[in-house]
Specification:
With 91 residues, the protein is α+β, with helices and mostly antiparallel strands. Helices cover 37% and strands 15% of the residues. The protein has one helix spanning 2-35; strands spanning 54-56, 65-68, 71-74, 83-85. A two-stranded antiparallel sheet has the order 1-4. It has a two-stranded antiparallel sheet with strand order 2-3.
Amino acid sequence: MFAIRNRSLLAVLAAVVLSGFVASQADEKKDEKKAVPKVKREIKLFNGKNLDGWKNSMFGGDGEIGVEDGQLILDMGNDITGVTWKDEKAL
């Protein structure tokens, strides 16, 4: 009988702890939504035509970079391939 009482107490304690955790997660999600700043203007980073505003990141062992069918294409290099936004004034 003592073991059953301990199990019941343990189950109730676990339920209380979990409900508190779920409630705190819900509050954090509400705060995250409020913290999102409103955008004053749209900034278009990629025009889908060329690499204007972008430069090769030069990680070493880079693959080819380019634009095909409106998509930025980063071919596989020896190590890593990437592009970096270079027009900070636009931001």
